[in-house]
Amino acid sequence: ASTLGASAAEKGRYYGTAIAAGRMGDSTYMTIANREFNMITAENEMKMDATEPSQGRFTFTNGDRIVNWALSNGKRVRGHTLAWHAQQPGWMQSMSGSALRNALINHVTQVASYYRGKVYAWDVVNEAFADDGRGSRRDSNLQRTGNDWIEAAFRAARAADPNAKLCYNDYNTDNWSHAKTQGVYNMVKDFKARGVPIDCVGFQAHFNSGNPVPSNYHTTLQNFADLGVDVQITELDIEGSGSSQAQQYQGVVQACLAVSRCTGITVWGVRDTDSWRASGTPLLFDGSGNKKAAYTSVLNALNAG
Ligand code: G3I
């Protein structure tokens, strides 16, 4: 096929992008997004600070703009994210203990209930592991409510939207030999053994020269899939340019296609100028909306074989 989404669909996968509500008036951006992608993640608009700016008062205006545009154009939605140490509203940042735990569970319940039936997969918990080389949990106000906060969030999400796939999502978990990868793997294994409802693991995949696409990526994805979960590349971007960048993008497609439970890939933005990174050229379209070499390598890899 001739677009990323249609080519991925022929392989039983999706190819998605993050969308920012503030850019939805940009016709170049929206034309590319609508043409190329069939899975949509709100870049910021469904996070905790956006959806519950004051306690118990929920706002879904910007999330709805993105979700309704996606669904009315035949695309699916990844919900991002119900529970995270970052981008918490101010009132939540200063909470602790059982009050915070109750507020977290209420947030998960209210947001997942509001979007029930509209979300293919939720990043229920985002970035809960540390980069300490030991595979530990990250310290945060949520972690200090008790080590079971993650499973409590997953159980609340399942109760609120029984048909959404429930994912754990993190970064620096791509290389199988990293301690953080092993920490997440052991948590998922434990959740599956104890019947905690988890359906998928998201690999953010923010790559750069110091953290390139690992040669063992396929191994990582397969080992997680073998635990009985789907795996997804959820926030892909790769610093660099030209053929080196294109080859790495191709490698990510090949790793996903090699794992039957790798259900899709999402890039974290449309054009280089839409990226969260302050500088650089990490995406598939240049600032003018032209297809880069990386785009062509992704399309060819999706259509190969
Ligand atoms: O909306 C305000 C605007 O009103 C204000 O004038 C402006 C000035 O700073 O800030 C705007 O908010 C910014 C927001 O993006 C929207 O542009 C925040 O400051 C900024 O911190 C926020 O950055 C987002 C970041 O998450 C926050 O943690 C990025 O857009 C977003 O791409 C990024 O996404 C994360 C994923 O959720 C999780 N994984 C890592 C990934 C990249 O950091």
UniProtKB/TrEMBL annotation:
GO terms for molecular function: endo-1,4-beta-xylanase activity; polysaccharide binding. Its EC number is 3.2.1.8. It catalyses: Endohydrolysis of (1->4)-beta-D-xylosidic linkages in xylans. This is Beta-xylanase. One of its GO terms (biological process) is xylan catabolic process. Keywords: Carbohydrate metabolism, Glycosidase, Hydrolase, Polysaccharide degradation, Signal, Xylan degradation. Residues 1-301 form the GH10 domain. The lineage of its organism: Bacteria, Bacillati, Actinomycetota, Actinomycetes, Micrococcales. Belongs to the glycosyl hydrolase 10 (cellulase F) family. The active site is at E235. It is an enzyme of class 3 (hydrolase). It comes from Cellulomonas fimi.
